[in-house]
Amino acid sequence: MTETTINNRSKGSKAEDIAVEYLENQGFKIIKRNFTFGKSGEIDIVCRDKNVLVFVEVKSRSSYEYGDPVLSMTNAKIKNIRRVAEAYLYVNKIENIECRFDFIGIDLRSSKPEINHIPNAF
Q: Domain limits at 8?
């Protein structure tokens, strides 16, 4: 692994920690972090919001050189997250439950992170 890869993974983990704390404070129950399915991809956070199973994608930015975090959500990324979510349901034998996909963008440019939570984002 390169230093850049390790640094990006560390930033991603920090952003996910912030997102988990935020979600727990909102009453969500965290079920799983970093669910991976083969080489298909990863879902950052799986949680419950009352009776709804929520798959959460977390993106952070420490600069806006590449734009707002929400701009990272391409159609290909969304399709991949949906595919991994289906795998999560299959692997865990979960049926007949309402699911949704949330997005959390975290702005790390200041000392206090700014959180943009978009429920039912896609």
A: 3-118
